[in-house]
Amino acid sequence: MQTNFDQKLLDGMRVDPNYDEPILNQVIRIAIYDEFHAYETYAKVIESFGEVAPFSNILLSEQRHFMALTNIASKYDVPLPINNWADKITIPSSLLECCEVGVAAEIDNIAMYDDLIQYATEYPDLLDVLFRLQAASYNNHLPAFRSCVLKYSNQFIDNETIYNDFSEHKIEDTISKINQFSELAQKIRVGEVSQDEIMQLLGNTNISFIAGAILGALGTTMFSKILDKNNEEQKS
Q1: In a 10 Å sphere around its CB, with 0-12 CB exposed, 13-18 middle and 19+ buried, how is residue 103 labelled?
Q2: Can you give the residue ranges of every domain in the chain?
Q3: Is the CATH number of domain 7-235 2.70.50.60?
């Protein structure tokens, strides 16, 4: 599998002012690489489950996002990153979990744009694109995936009262966990996380796919090692 010369930076999804690469290049390459990630993830969901909403609609949106960013990259002569996501993505076995991954990915995408935007203020055209893409994630994609979680959480519940109570509890619990994972992901990226923090968050909840979606390649490796160590300790 090919890797990018700035793979660690791309996986971290944050600009590093001390990295030996122009800030403008970092901003554009990080944004494009994340759009690759989203596209490949949602394409694999469609490959496994068919043309299901909202994945099919959002996939088309991701294509437009990519085109907007590649036009900017071409204008400023920024080389595109290698799209090496195809072999790194594993799709969950249910649509509910896929929707949860979508929520996680969009939350992390919004946070990424918060970081990139502050480094793009000298480039109004780039800034406009970043704001528009972040707004699409916040106003369209994230609500769509939240509704998706709600739908598949309750597909086997018929009683309306139970349905509504369960819906609110389920989706708020899922989003709460995702928000905590996002905070944890940032700590991992700057090396400020402990095993105790991760295990406290996990508790008895099995949401490893969400963790993988948020933490990225580097974080997932660390996450897996910690889980393996914890399992070994429980067996001994």
Answers
A1: buried
A2: 7-235
A3: no
